[in-house]
Amino acid sequence: xxxxxxxxxxxxxxxxxxxxxxxxxxxxxxxxxxxxxxxxxxxxxxxxxxxxxxxxxxxxxxxxxxxxxxxxxxxxxxxxxxxxxxxxxxxxxxxxxxxxxxxxxxxxx
Amino acid sequence: xxxxxxxxxxxxxxxxxxxxxxxxxxxxxxxxxxxxxxxxxxxxxxxxxxxxxxxxxxxxxxxxxxxxxxxxxxxxxxxxxxxxxxxxxxxxxxxxxxxxxxxxxxxxxxx
Lengths: 109, 111
Known about the structure:
The complex is a heterodimer of chains A (109) and B (111).
Chain A: E1 4-5, E2 11-14, E3 19-25, E4 33-38, E5 45-50, E6 54-58, E7 61-66, E8 71-76, E9 85-91, E10 98-99, E11 103-108
Chain B: E1 4-7, E2 10-13, E3 19-25, E4 31-38, E5 42-49, E6 56-57, E7 64-68, E8 74-78, E9 87-94, E10 100-102, E11 106-110
Parallel strand pairs in B: 2-11
Antiparallel strand pairs in B: 1-3, 3-8, 4-5, 4-9, 5-6, 7-8, 9-10, 9-11
């Protein structure tokens, strides 16, 4: 059974800092990964996806995939209080993606 | 607006009552899903439909049934609600490569 592991946090960073969120996965054959942001009381929202080894940048967000070490990370540069949310990592290579339980991020002014 | 529409947003049921959660998507996605989310448990898959005409059990299907009415609509039915089914329910749809789009959720309380 595939597993996706995330530290539940909370991860607390000051405004303007880089927040680093990490995720490890069990299936060495997994190909695609997704990061979702979920504000309290809201539904998850897709913010990044990555298929290839290396980095993928989109604005203040960078997703990193290291298939050899089986980890995925999300970096948020210049963190803002509005980034405070739970971030879900998902492995999405089949009809049934596997979600991690999420990491809570708190960005304090 | 394109997306996934879920109804109702809130519901309170008495133990033993039945209800159907409705979900519709207008993105022409083949796959649709029902999840429940409980504190500390993350998202747990109840049922999914890989394509119109097919449905399959997920991780926690007991106490639920589903119907894929057509390509757009995927409903979740609780035949006899139990307090253990108190949760937030999310419907989602997925295209081939670009992850899920979630509905806004249904907060269900069973008393």
